[in-house]
């Protein structure tokens, strides 16, 4: 038998095919094998079962003898760590490295093991190779993995895109409205097509904030000034350009459920178009939060309860292009969602009799597959980014929490997280 470093076992391991009892064997930071439950023998050094001593956490050394460390979760589910697409990291006035550390710690608490960082709002914005290097150095202290999106604006040229990709960005992001910084101002139709041509040549992906600037108030500071028709108009522009160019495109965030038919029509026309929403759009209707809630600053805004229900219908439609869910964490507008997004999403999903497989597909497998990352799956060859999730636990979010879920009782709690096969603590 191969020399595994660690084995994490559970009667409820969420693999791509569903949920099964299994031993997940880890070697050198990657999943080496997913084997039948209790097929691996070794010294049990850690357990989540009530009444068992968690030797690993007490600081004791690994017991002498052959075999890997074995973590026995019992009936507690084991999920792939979430890949958070479009994480806003930089808090206004805060040192960039400090922002990365704080966001990474919040990500761990929420079961996110990889942040895919939005190019703006951040200082500097991620629009060139030099700014990318600044962010890479700042992110070196993050407790979770970090990937980057390159920003696209009217002045972005082919060499800028090529340099960003060579520097390590995993995809690109643009906006048709307020992109979060002067460096990310709205793209015109010609700028959008130009960017799509170059990004298609690089065989990469363009993520678009699709609210159309001409449909927004000036400045767009309220929900009434950011109507669903702004998303519809922007989506029409994206589809038109992508259809001509043939570029892979992803809409994020997608909130106006009335536009779901446009996504379906684009797919029928051969346009490679997907979309992402956020848990707060699925969990919090505009009628719910108080006037001082940070979620009031969302771009796009929260929609009505009817829209929220229709958004769930679009998400659950077989073969839906709406296939990924990200936290929408954005400290620049006071939106701190990373620690609670997974629990909020599970709270709403469980009420609809959905499964942990849905959760893993939307938050881990879908985003990772979209970006071509070897993450987001409990499968041999993938990064051993894993989380133990108590799907029955309830938590009352503190009233003074800075996020939109303050005071809510949520179901589901992340209890342990492994990044690259090593247990991590925020």
Describe the protein.
The protein has eleven helices and 17 strands. The strands form three sheets. It has an eight-stranded parallel beta sheet, sandwiched between helices. A five-stranded mixed beta sheet has the order 3-2-1-5-4. α5 crosses α6.
Taking pLDDT < 50 over at least 5 consecutive residues as the criterion, the unreliable ranges are 50-64
Q: What is the CATH T-level topology of the largest domain?
A: TIM Barrel
Structural class: alpha/beta
Q: What is the rounded Rg?
A: 21 Å
The CATH architecture assignment of the largest domain turns out to be Alpha-Beta Barrel
Question: CATH H level of the largest domain: which superfamily?
Answer: Metal-dependent hydrolases
Q: How many β-strand runs?
A: 17
